[in-house]
Amino acid sequence: HVQLVESGGGSVQAGGSLRVSCEISGGTSSGLCMGWFRQAPGKEREGVASISKDDVPTYDESVTGRFTISEDTVKNILYLQMDNLQPEDTAMYYCAAKTATCTVRSLQAQEYNYWGQGTQVTVS
What we know:
The chain is mainly β. The protein is 0% helix and 48% strand. The strands form two sheets. Strands 2, 4, 5, 6, 9, 10 and 11 form a seven-stranded mixed β-sheet that branches.
């Protein structure tokens, strides 16, 4: 049973950077399709980035060039480096995983069956 625990959220001024992490247990990041999602108050959960089992990243156009998804397969941790943060990036950020291969729908929440509890990112 895969378990995910996010950390690293916080508050930052516009233009600043944060890195959020997701510790994975019960599975290995190299054997999972992994994703980062976010949900702002009153809005639907949206896909931010995903990374396939062979380390191919996919990004939503709203974060392309600013966010970078990566994984440390030794420590079994997924990261999301967020640069040039803007107020519209304010949201709860969630880590997600699935054992199936990433597909063209890898930024859709319904594709994933394992979720973390989330970490808050606030940009002012």
